[in-house]
Amino acid sequence: MAENKKAVLRRIKAVKSTQQITKAMKMVDAAKLRRAQEKVLAARPYARELAKTLGRLVAAGAGANHPLLARQPEGAPTVAYVVITADRGLAGSFNINVIRKAHQAIQAESRPVKLICIGRKGRDYFVKRKIQPVMEWVGLGDNMTFALARSIVTKLVDLYLSGEVDEVRLVYTEFINAVSQRPVEAQLLPVQPAKGAEAHGQAEYIYEPSPEEVLNTLVPRFAETIFYQALLESKASEHGARMTAMGNATDNAEEMIAKLTLAYNRARQAAITREISEIVGGANALKG
Fold first, then answer.
1. Helix 2-59 to helix 211-287 angle, to the nearest 10 degrees?
2. Per-residue model confidence (pLDDT) at position 1
3. C-alpha closest to that of 231 among 92, 137, 158
4. For residue 187, what are the contacts with CB-CB under 8 A and spacing of at least 6?
5. CA angle 214, 219, 224 (to 5 degrees)
6. Into which CATH architecture does domain 22-245 fall?
7. Rounded distance, CA 188 to CA 208, Å?
8. Which residues contact 238 (CB under 8 A, 6 or more apart)?
9. Cα atoms in the 13 Å half-sphere on the side-chain side of 109
10. From CA 169, how far away is CA 284, in angstroms rounded?
């Protein structure tokens, strides 16, 4: 019985240590989430208005032959999937959800596929399944900058313009709130500006020096902005998912500590009761 009580005490101590770690991780990711969420909310209106501006330019007849807007594939079309995951785990279902969506999209493709991985978790998943990425970026950290997005998009544009791929698609996690994230798939190249009434609006615009010159400047910037937003959305989703997962782990540890404490108290009470019974039994024997 004494050994049983010692084992329960060791488990209580171990669970309390784990609880301290998960609580600290929750607080760290909560602070990171606030900063990441601010960046996401700031990036969305800019990307939306940029898409509308490009839509107005295209509707006005500019950029009909721009290589990043439309290009006829030569030979068999090939698609590249850019899968954005985290470098670390302990984030609930964050990584597996986006990996599952990417894997399903790749399996459903009738075209040849090239895989590009951003994040160690996605890279490791596909490498284990003999799907080797043609490009990969891991260990990028928590600070997603526009310069980083531009450097990656430059390589993706080179891959597209060289004719190695005819379409580039993003698979990432869209941030909704701290407890809700959604894996999405979106086209990066060729660029798709807003269409129809969404692009027009009431105001008329005069472009200087010319609509074509403005569009030539905005199209690469739009691709960079869309990719930068995807990085921000994914990073905010990662922090939100990890904060939620660590919060759940902390609560589960609290429940486990309560159950173990109850088991320890019962074992101790049983030992005390047995000792009292032995004492009473011995006293009665002496009287007899």
1. 170
2. 53
3. 137
4. 167, 168, 169, 170
5. 130
6. 3-Layer(aba) Sandwich (3.40)
7. 27
8. 86, 91, 94, 173
9. 19
10. 85
pLDDT band at 285 (very low <50, low <70, confident <90, very high): confident
Q: Which residues are within 8 A (CB) of 87 and not within 5 positions of it... i.e. 6 or more apart?
A: 119, 120, 121, 138, 139, 140
Amino acid at 200: H
The token duo for 151 is 């450097």
Structure confidence by residue, pLDDT tens digits, 170-220: 999 999 988 899 999 999 998 887 765 455 555 567 777 777 888 888 899
- Provide the b/e sequence for 124-163 (b: ≥16 CB within 10 Å): bbbeeeeeebeebbeebeeebeeebbbebbeebbebbeee
Asked if the model's pLDDT at residue 166 lies above 50, the reply is yes
- Give Dmax (Cα) for the chain: 116
114 DSSP β-pair partners: 80
Query: Using an 8 Å Cβ cutoff, are 90 and 96 in contact?
Result: no
Residues 6+ positions from 36 with CB-CB distance below 8 Å:
142, 175, 232, 235, 236, 239
Asked whether the CA dihedral 265, 270, 276, 278 is positive or negative, the reply is negative
